[in-house]
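[09:14] KT: can someone run the structure on this one? pasting the chain below
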Amino acid sequence: MQTLYLGGDETQSQMGEDMTISKGARLPDAQLLYMGQEGPASVSLADKMVGRKVVIFGLPGAYTGVCTTAHVPSFMRTKDQFAAKGVDEIICVSVNDPFVMQAWGEATGATQAGLTMLGDADGTFTKAIGMDFTAPPAGLLGRSKRYAMLVEDGVVTLLNQEESPGMCEISAGETLLDHME
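[09:31] RB: done, structure tokens below
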């Protein structure tokens, strides 16, 4: 069983146990997917974090209601304000394949606005940080809870998680921006 470090130097947990990422925790590395020049390609999340300030927001699924009409647009509206506060990149992570993430980024204007759309196709990252959920009546199996976090050099400095995946208030771009010092 692989050991996964989620807290400071002292906190460690085994993969598969029920855990949720928290403020002060170091994000685990993950290989996330995007559409490259030659087709699907992977990127190391840890490599994207080194020496950088990054916003990561997760949501239940591409093309779903609140994700498309509220969550993604909130980060499109606030991108320049985050940049003014030193944020190097805003990353949207969803348990979807890179083909869907690319098409959704283009359809919403998120790609053109400069957001990075990454797929966690098998949900490994989402499960590792304890943000996975399943809602069979809605057809959402193995999806992500709705959250937004500020990550500095791989460490979570702010974390806003919605109580319901149908809400986008505390995980919206404007709210995360307001919570930044």
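[09:33] KT: thanks! The mean pLDDT is 89.
[09:34] RB: yep, looked fine to me
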